[in-house]
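QUALITY CONTROL LOG
STEP: pairwise intake check
CHECKER ROLE: data steward
CRITERIA: each record must contain a sequence immediately followed by its structure tokens, with no blank fields

ENTRY 1 OF 2
RESULT FIELD BELOW
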Amino acid sequence: MDEGKIIKLDTPDRMIDELVEAGFERPKQVKAANLEDVFIHLTGKEMRPD
């Protein structure tokens, strides 16, 4: 809806798929930390290599 008028009537999944098919890409956001950082913070240990 926009200003009280229906501008598109479809399922959310279909609207997202159509937007992506049209070439839309959301800018990638990188978090300041990852799960490895959490592990090191919680344990005080580096992760072991495989």
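ENTRY 2 OF 2
RESULT FIELD BELOW
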Amino acid sequence: MNKYEIAVVLSAKLEDEERAAIIERIKGLVERFGGNVTSVDDWGKKRLAYEIQKMNEAYYYFIYFESENTDCPNEMEQQLRIMDGVIRYLVVREDEE
């Protein structure tokens, strides 16, 4: 089973409930595309390295999941690209030890 990590940067303008809904939606998409979420790390509000969409701060989340479906990361990227509130995202495969 392949292990993946999704780094998601959410808009600082979102309320707590909206951020929680987006993270739940992402977790649901992982399961829909044949994955299993193992953990979610909430790093909180951090300063951005450079201004994005006239914002200097954003919320950072790291979602770890496993999937045997090799199309799952590609499907996730397609969905994250059009999701409201998501400023930046990155899906990477973790190295096998």
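INTAKE CHECK: passed for both entries
DESCRIPTIVE NOTE, ENTRY 2: Strands lie at 2-11, 35-52, 55-67, 86-93.
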